[in-house]
């Protein structure tokens, strides 16, 4: 029947804990918990019928919909390894993931089938929706008999999550059943507020943040309810949150910035109490402005990486520190180290390093990359930050994004946070470009609100007055859209590609 701390058993226990109830809302209707459980159990039988065996990887490439968590739970019940792929990638990167992970099958949807087929794959392709000849209709999987839980061990792989596509070739992060089980339980204990059970979820379930959100709900002491969004759109988020009386929600910083461009005061959200925010650093001014305009809502920041099973620190609801990303979850230790690996005292900036039993076991087919990232069992995150006297972590920027201008360190986030404080700015991205005299120069890309009239020169002056003469951008470009990744993180790789001499 499988070990105690495996995700197939976690799903079964969560289904059996409560009577049948409205569990998941999507595009106009609520899905009942027993309906979802039955579908997942039958799909597990159908997946096994395809020839998928315990330990096999199965790529899941879909926009958010009810079938995503159903397929995840079915794969875990069958002992397979969930391999989520963000739905916005192209054929070339998907082909790399297929070559690297060597999956037994692919699950996708009709609008993404052309991308899958463009890779030339000969694998079984399961299509959720209308399935053309040569593919497997997902509905046929749910016609199978339910199957018992596969016998898997706690330290077996549960997920192979590809990350790093914005910095180079995507790497497969190996996460175990036990690691994801313990991290999701710790995250639930750190974030759960009794009585607040209805969550709006606009983050992609194909991302580590979205995956852990689905697992956190399985540990809930009260029947959890999720309002799923296929993808984030600010007006629809506000409409759904109001209509479905969302009490909590999961967001990333760019979503909050986009929401600030909406008439928030015209959409009352009387039941919304907390928004958890992660995946990228949040500007303090964005947090305070959102809370000012949406009274009664508290934003709780957290921090994590795919390599740490998605969550590392979180702000306790009753002991939040604005500007920090909170305290380490139980079982996690955060140490700040200098370039030589020595631990630094409180309030000193250095590389954030994490130790926990829930860390990845390594990168798939990447022993050299694993040795670089895991040093004596501790993850070198590549992020720069510090820890205060109370143990709260503050994240400054990515180590690789640091700009060294004339010998001075410039953290792009400092400049970006200053630019988005301008009332006509929606998003800002800052990168360095080679400079023969100074080594690197600071370059900014800015997306403006509709009807904005501010000029690049005025924004440069705005930044110079606030960040000083070393850090302010000497070049500033106004663009239609600042590029972001599929989870709405700033895509600095795309910005660097616009600069001559940089990848």
From TrEMBL:
Domain AMP-dependent synthetase/ligase: 12-364
Record-given protein name: Acyl-CoA synthetase
Pfam families to which the protein is assigned, alphabetical: AMP-binding (PF00501), AMP-binding_C (PF13193)
Family according to the record: Belongs to the ATP-dependent AMP-binding enzyme family.
InterPro entries, per the entry: AMP-bd_C (IPR025110), AMP-bd_C_sf (IPR045851), AMP-binding_CS (IPR020845), AMP-dep_synth/lig_dom (IPR000873), ANL_N_sf (IPR042099)
Record GO terms (molecular function): CoA-ligase activity
UniProtKB keywords: Ligase
Residues annotated as domain AMP-binding enzyme C-terminal: 415-486
Record has Transferase as a keyword: no
Keyword Cell inner membrane: no
């Amino acid at each position: 029947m499988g070990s105690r701390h495996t995700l197939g058993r976690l799903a079964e226990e969560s289904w059996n804990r409560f009577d049948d109830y409205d569990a998941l809302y999507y595009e106009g209707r609520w899905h009942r918990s027993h309906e979802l459980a039955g579908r997942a159990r039958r799909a597990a039988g159908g997946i096994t019928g395809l020839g998928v065996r315990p330990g096999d990887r199965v790529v899941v490439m879909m926009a958010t919909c009810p079938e995503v968590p159903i397929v995840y739970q079915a794969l875990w019940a069958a002992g397979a390894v969930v391999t989520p792929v963000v739905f916005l990638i192209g054929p070339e990167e998907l082909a790399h993931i297929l070559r690297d992970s060597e999956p037994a099958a692919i699950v996708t949807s009709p609008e993404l089938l052309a991308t899958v087929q463009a890779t030339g794959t000969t694998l079984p392709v399961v299509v959720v929706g209308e399935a053309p000849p040569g593919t497997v209709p997902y509905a046929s999987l749910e016609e199978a008999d339910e199957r018992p839980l596969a016998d898997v061990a706690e330290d077996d792989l549960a997920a192979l999550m590809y990350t790093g596509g914005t910095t180079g070739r995507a790497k497969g992060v190996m996460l175990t059943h036990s690691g994801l089980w313990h991290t999701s339980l710790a995250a639930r204990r750190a974030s759960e507020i009794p009585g607040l059970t209805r969550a709006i979820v606009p983050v992609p379930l194909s991302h580590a943040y979205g995956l852990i959100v689905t697992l956190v709900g399985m540990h809930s002491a009260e029947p959890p309810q999720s309002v799923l969004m296929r993808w984030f759109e600010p007006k629809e988020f506000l409409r759904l949150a109001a209509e479905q009386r969302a009490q909590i929600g999961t967001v990333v910083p760019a979503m909050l910035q986009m929401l600030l461009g909406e008439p928030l005061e015209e959409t009352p959200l009387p039941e919304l109490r907390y928004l958890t925010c992660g995946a990228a650093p949040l500007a303090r001014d964005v947090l305070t402005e959102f809370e000012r305009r949406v009274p009664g809502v508290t934003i709780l920041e957290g921090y994590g990486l795919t390599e740490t099973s998605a969550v590392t620190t979180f702000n306790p609801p009753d002991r939040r520190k604005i500007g920090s990303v909170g305290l380490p979850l139980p079982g996690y230790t955060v140490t700040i180290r200098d370039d030589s690996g020595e631990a630094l005292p409180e309030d000193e900036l250095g590389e954030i390093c994490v130790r926990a039993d829930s860390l990845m076991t390594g990168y798939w087919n990447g022993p050299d990359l694993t040795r670089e990232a895991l040093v004596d069992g501790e993850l070198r995150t590549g992020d720069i930050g510090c820890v205060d006297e109370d143990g709260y972590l503050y994240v400054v920027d990515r180590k690789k994004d640091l700009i060294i201008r004339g010998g001075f360190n410039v953290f792009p986030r400092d400049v970006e946070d200053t630019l988005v404080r301008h009332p006509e700015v929606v998003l800002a991205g800052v990168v360095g470009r080679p400079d023969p005299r100074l080594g690197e120069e600071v370059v900014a890309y800015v997306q403006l609100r509709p009807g904005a009239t501010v000029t690049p020169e005025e924004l440069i002056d705005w930044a110079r007055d606030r960040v000083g003469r070393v850090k302010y951008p000497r070049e500033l470009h106004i663009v239609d859209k600042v590029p972001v990744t599929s989870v709405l993180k700033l895509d600095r790789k795309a910005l660097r590609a616009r600069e001559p001499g940089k990848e």
